[in-house]
């Protein structure tokens, strides 16, 4: 850790720019739009854009790509690209270049000396080196969550802003390689102040139609609730991001250079010019202005930049000479996407509109890039955990007022999470050794930054940050039901931080060994808890390193952005007062009865003593305690049973006289013959082992809000709300992947990118129920399949949602077939092929089976072609019920059959799909196929009720669960623990309904970055107001609102001429016969000092000074 801090300190110290390097030296220096070559409206302006696309990991790791190692995998070295480009730009002021990935640029920048830095500053000030995109990486748009996208843009742009000032601010988005594009991403870019977005990949049918009708550029509305403020110019590049055929002048390419020696037999100027001019004229027919952008670059190009620039110089020179000589009205010049966008705006074309998204993406009739929505599910979950941890550490750094040197480890985590958003990281489309390296980097960042939580918790509990730590806090692998500390400790502390701005009731599950445990809240109260066994299919996860057999489960009530600690104590075995036996009374029920002092107390009660005397006076078994809990046939047959229900989990507090009379009355009515005889299996249940009962009849999980019915094999059959019952099954299936040589669409294999099942029906499984534990905290149903799938249906007391925990794998491929495991939720809802999925975890979009909003779909892959990305949610509804499935990571799915939702959980394939990875998606661990464990939360509602706010809250609670640490408390007895500060409130009060504190981040000294999000929809139309000055315990000393990425002040946006009007709601209009409703302008809000307002779906960003 100390070495890491020293290195980071040195890097940070060397990265501070001088003011005179940022400010233009004289009036001749121009950057941004002012540096653009003036275009001629009477000619075709050809913008030559020199660029490189540098994946932040893919076939090689980040370091391998940067340093240029492992060239046997791919010849690529980013440091050589930047070295070479800067050298070539410096030699000729006409040349330009763009760079995208700040992760690589920063890795290079901190290693440069003053001379190189001076040159780069000059190039940036003069607009010859421009940054586009500018985020830490070029993020994916299907599997990435909006919070993580926003964080990685903020981090990358801050590096550029701090180093280059206003000249380092990117003006356009550059998403040339992601495999589909989301509507929410467009909305975020617009809010960050970007003027346009350029895309590389769109569906082949969509592109063909756009080329035909010259609709390759459009006005894209990012969010209906935000209206025109979310509009963004969006252009689809003509040739993805590659050069025209025959014009790749890179060391990696085989195209012929331009030979301008007329005496050479290789002379080819005229040939090259004819080919190029024909190409750009054809391209210009597909766009609506007198400008075309020609991308000159590709993956890791420009390691020898001189090859490019020497040839591009010749191309520009000879083409312009020929145009002038022959009257071609064509002008070529070095340009950038910024300058191209400005030229198009100056031309002022009328553009088509778009109001949906670009998913799913297909590159040919059988290549639907929908497999990566699920590929590498454990990596996707790890990324989600990383985001949760990052938010919590940012919060605690501010709220606990921790030392500023912690920023080094916090920044390490920001960089790791920015890397994880890359379109070959969170997507799971990298080589296996790269996936391991991503996980290594994120793991190390999490471990290093956990010092923030440890400092904060110890400072809070002792009311002093200077004292030696009271606890040695540890993180645990709760997703594997594994925690070494709690398994071996008899008394420990569980400390949680809630990163949300409202009170949360969170189910804590702590792995332990079998025993009796008491959980104490900060006020000393022993709260309800339950010891639940761990199913064998969890214990048998190959990577699980744990001896825990049970989990202590309790509900933690947490304050908004608050810290709370619980003391957990394992009771000694000789303390029988808390020991419980399990009694099986009826097929559909059983209760836990204490055979302890409570019964002695009842026995000695004057009202009940005759009852006990008559029941036990002939009992041959001599015992001090009454025989209700004794496994004796004679005692069981001789006793007159008391109604057990009134004693259930009460700990002896039923001493009201009327209650006792009722107890005796019911005892009199409960005659002996009504008590069932006990079978061997039922007798087994009288032991202290967990009760795992296989029943032949139906079983129920229920609480006051929800009732779920299961059949004899443990499968869900029905869900019952207070006012409606509907069919609901949850079963696992698997698809087998197509296998081919990938030489043609018909030979396409299913792979890391591509989902292509062999059949149109999945294969089913057989199931058996393996447990049904019930208690005062949670009811569960355990089920195993014959194909290595286990599931836990879980309903917590008081919860309005139902949880399905599943363990999938190892996927058996011994038959030589790759498999893709899914879960199907099957209902009797009539959804007419309509379903909804979220966009990056924020807005939802309507989907219709076998349809696309903007073209008539021809579909050869009816399964894969109807899969969509699910970041957080998918739902269906009819006139009566809505069924929502909330996911704990990004996955893929759809509604392929009426009333059904399918979600893909895991994939293990044996063949590559030939899109570059070069290896099969065949993940293993500990010598077996990789096992994933995940969770879905099911939310049901009456269609007539608007539960959007509750659903949004539930989604956020799933996305940002409390961060949990444990610590051994053997040195601290319970009584002493009670004297500590075990409860901390980060906010003075809860946020108003509909408001989410999206970002609380340390910025500069005595500054924080604050983002507030109104998650209400326009249909719920209420503007939210909040007084920030009364929200925190520290004093605010001024604030400034900035654009969403916090890299520039609020500025006016560009608007475009649209050929048609936007509708008010895409979801209402798509595949609907209702009359169109045109969109209306959304009014701005007006603040009053620290009292700020947010309209529906708005995110506002402030830099706040405080003390």
Polypeptide structure, described:
By secondary structure, the chain is an alpha+beta fold. Among the domains are: 105 residues, no CATH class; 216 residues, Distorted Sandwich (Beta-galactosidase, Chain A, domain 5), CATH 2.70.98.30; 83 residues, Immunoglobulin-like (Sandwich), CATH 2.60.40. The chain is 25% helix and 26% strand. It contains 25 helices and 50 strands. The strands form 13 sheets. The chain has a nine-stranded antiparallel beta sheet with strand order 27-28-29-30-41-36-35-32-33. Strands 23-24-25-26-31-38-37-34 form an eight-stranded antiparallel beta sheet, with no helix packed on it. Strands 14, 16, 17, 20, 42 and 43 form a six-stranded antiparallel beta sheet that branches. Strand 32 and strand 33 form a beta hairpin. Helix 13 packs antiparallel against helix 14. It is globular. The chain starts with a helix and ends with a strand. 49% of the residues are buried.
Shape: globular
Overall helicity: 25-40%
Q: In percent, how much strand structure appears in the residues?
A: 25-35%
Q: Distance N terminus to C terminus?
A: 29 Å
Structural class: alpha+beta
**CATH A-level architecture of the domain at 730-945:** Distorted Sandwich
CATH superfamily of the domain at 730-945: Golgi alpha-mannosidase II, domain 4
Average per-residue pLDDT, rounded, comes to 89
DSSP summary, beta strand count: 50
Major sheet strand order: 27-28-29-30-41-36-35-32-33
CATH topology name of the domain at 730-945? Beta-galactosidase, Chain A, domain 5
Main β-sheet: number of strands, strand sense, barrel status?
Answer: 9 strands, antiparallel
Uncertain regions spanning at least 5 consecutive residues:
1-18, 574-657, 666-676, 681-695
Rg from C-alpha positions?
32 Å
The CATH C-level class name of the domain at 730-945 = Mainly Beta
Provide a count of the helices: 25
InterPro entries: Gal_mutarotase_sf_dom, GH38_C, Glyco_hydro/deAcase_b/a-brl, Glyco_hydro_38_C, Glyco_hydro_38_cen, Glyco_hydro_38_cen_sf, Glyco_hydro_38_N, Glyco_hydro_38_N_sf
EC number: 3.2.1.-
Catalytic activity: Hydrolysis of terminal, non-reducing alpha-D-mannose residues in alpha-D-mannosides
Enzyme class: hydrolase
């Amino acid at each position: 850790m100390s070495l890491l801090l020293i290195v980071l300190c040195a890097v940070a110290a060397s990265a501070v720019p001088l003011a005179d390097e940022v400010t233009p030296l004289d009036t001749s220096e121009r950057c941004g739009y002012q540096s653009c070559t003036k275009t001629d409206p009477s000619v075709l302006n050809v913008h030559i854009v020199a660029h490189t696309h540098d994946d932040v990991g893919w076939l090689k790791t980040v370091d391998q790509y940067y340093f240029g190692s492992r060239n046997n995998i791919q010849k690529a070295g980013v440091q050589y690209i930047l070295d070479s480009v800067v050298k070539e730009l410096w030699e000729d002021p006409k040349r330009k270049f763009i760079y995208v990935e700040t992760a690589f640029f920063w890795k290079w920048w901190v290693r440069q000396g003053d001379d190189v830095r001076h040159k780069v500053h000059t190039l940036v000030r003069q607009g010859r080196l421009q940054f586009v995109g500018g985020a830490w990486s070029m993020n994916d748009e299907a599997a990435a969550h909006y919070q993580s996208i926003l964080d990685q843009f903020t981090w990358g742009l801050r590096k550029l802003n701090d180093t280059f000032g206003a000249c380092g601010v990117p003006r356009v988005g550059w998403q040339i390689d992601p495999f589909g594009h989301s509507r929410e991403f467009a909305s975020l870019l617009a809010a960050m102040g970007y003027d346009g977005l350029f895309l590389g990949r769109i569906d082949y049918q969509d592109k063909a139609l756009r080329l035909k009708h010259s609709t390759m550029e459009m006005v894209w509305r990012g969010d209906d609730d935000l209206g025109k403020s979310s509009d963004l110019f969006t252009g689809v590049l003509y040739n993805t991001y590659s050069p025209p055929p025959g014009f790749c002048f890179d060391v990696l390419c085989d195209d012929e250079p331009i030979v301008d020696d007329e005496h050479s037999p290789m002379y080819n100027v005229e040939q090259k010019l004819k080919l190029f001019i024909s190409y750009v004229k054809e391209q210009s027919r597909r766009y609506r202005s007198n400008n075309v952008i020609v991308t000159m670059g590709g993956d890791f190009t420009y390691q020898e930049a001189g090859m490019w620039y020497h040839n591009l110089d010749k191309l520009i020179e000879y083409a312009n000479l020929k145009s002038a000589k022959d009257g071609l009205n064509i002008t070529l010049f070095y340009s950038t996407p910024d300058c191209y966008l400005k030229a198009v705006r100056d031309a002022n074309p009328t553009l088509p509109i778009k109001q949906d998204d670009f998913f799913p993406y297909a590159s040919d009739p059988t290549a639907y890039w929908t497999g990566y929505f699920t590929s590498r599910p454990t990596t996707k979950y790890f990324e989600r955990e990383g985001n949760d941890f990052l938010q919590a550490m940012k919060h605690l750094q501010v709220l606990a007022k921790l030392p500023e040197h912690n920023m080094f480890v916090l920044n390490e985590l920001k960089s790791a999470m920015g890397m994880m958003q890359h379109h070959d990281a969170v997507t799971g489309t990298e080589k296996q050794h790269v996936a391991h390296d991503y996980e290594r980097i994120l793991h190390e960042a999490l471990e290093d930054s956990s010092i923030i939580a440890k400092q904060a918790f110890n400072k809070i509990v002792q009311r002093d940050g200077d004292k030696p730590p009271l606890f040695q806090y540890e993180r645990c692998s709760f997703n594997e039901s594994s925690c070494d500390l709690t398994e071996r400790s008899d008394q420990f502390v569980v400390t949680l931080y809630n990163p949300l701005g409202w009170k949360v009731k969170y189910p804590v599950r702590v792995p332990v060994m079998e025993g009796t445990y008491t959980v104490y809240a900060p006020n000393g109260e022993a709260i309800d808890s339950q010891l639940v066994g761990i199913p064998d299919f969890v214990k048998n996860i190959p990577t699980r390193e744990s001896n825990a057999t049970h989990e202590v489960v309790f509900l933690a009530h947490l304050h908004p952005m608050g810290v709370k600690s619980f003391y957990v104590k394992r009771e000694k075995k000789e303390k029988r007062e808390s020991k419980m036996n399990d009694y099986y009374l009826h097929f559909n029920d059983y209760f836990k009865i204490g055979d302890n002092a409570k019964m002695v107390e009842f026995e000695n009660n004057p009202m009940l003593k005759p009852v006990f005397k008559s029941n036990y006076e002939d009992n041959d078994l001599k015992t001090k305690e009454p025989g209700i809990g004794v496994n004796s046939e004679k005692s069981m047959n001789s006793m007159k049973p008391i109604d057990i229900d009134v004693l259930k989990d009460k700990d002896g507090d039923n001493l009201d006289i009327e209650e006792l009379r009722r107890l005796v009355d019911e005892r009199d009515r409960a005659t002996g013959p009504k008590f069932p005889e006990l079978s061997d299996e039922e007798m087994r249940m009288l032991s202290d082992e967990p009760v795992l009962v296989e029943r032949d009849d139906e079983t129920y999980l229920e609480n006051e809000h929800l009732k779920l019915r299961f059949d004899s094999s443990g499968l869900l059959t029905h869900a019952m709300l207070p006012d409606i019952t509907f069919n609901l099954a949850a079963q696992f299936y698997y698809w087998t992947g197509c296998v081919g040589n990938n030489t043609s669409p018909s030979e396409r294999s299913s792979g890391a990118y591509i989902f292509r099942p062999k059949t149109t029906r999945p294969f089913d499984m057989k199931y058996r129920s393996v447990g049904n534990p019930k208690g005062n905290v949670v009811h569960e149903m355990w089920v195993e399949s014959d194909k290595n799938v286990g599931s836990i249906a879980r309903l917590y007391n008081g919860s309005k949602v139902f949880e399905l925990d599943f363990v999938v794998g190892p996927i058996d491929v011994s038959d030589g077939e790759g498999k893709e495991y899914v879960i199907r939720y099957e209902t009797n809802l009539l959804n007419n092929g309509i379903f909804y999925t979220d966009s990056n975890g924020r807005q939802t979009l309507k989907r219709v089976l076998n349809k696309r909003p903007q073209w008539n779909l021809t579909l050869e892959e009816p399964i894969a072609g109807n899969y969509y990305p699910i970041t957080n949610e998918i739902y269906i509804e009819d006139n009566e019920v809505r069924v929502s499935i909330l996911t704990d990571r990004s996955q893929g799915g759809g509604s392929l059959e009426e009333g059904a939702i399918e979600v893909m959980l895991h994939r293990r394939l044996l063949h590559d799909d030939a899109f570059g990875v070069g290896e099969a998606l065949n993940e293993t661990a500990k010598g077996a196929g990789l096992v994933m464990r995940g969770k879905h939360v099911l939310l049901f509602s009456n269609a007539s009720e608007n539960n959007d706010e509750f659903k949004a809250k539930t989604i956020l609670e799933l996305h940002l669960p409390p961060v949990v640490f444990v610590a051994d408390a053997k040195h601290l007895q319970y009584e002493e623990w009670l004297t500590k500060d075990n409860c901390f409130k980060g906010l003075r009060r809860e946020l108003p309904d509909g408001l989410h504190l999206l970002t609380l981040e340390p910025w500069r000294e005595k500054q924080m970055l604050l983002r507030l999000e109104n998650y209400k929809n326009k249909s719920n139309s209420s503007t939210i107001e909040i007084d920030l000055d009364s929200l925190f315990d520290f004093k605010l000393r001024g604030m400034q609102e900035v654009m969403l990425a916090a890299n520039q002040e609020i500025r006016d946006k560009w608007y475009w001429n649209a050929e048609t009007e936007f509708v008010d709601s895409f979801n209402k209009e798509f595949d609907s016969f209702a009359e169109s409703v045109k969109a209306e302008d959304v009014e701005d809000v007006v603040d009053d000092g620290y009292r700020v307002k947010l309209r529906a779906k708005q995110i506002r960003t402030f830099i706040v000074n405080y003390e």
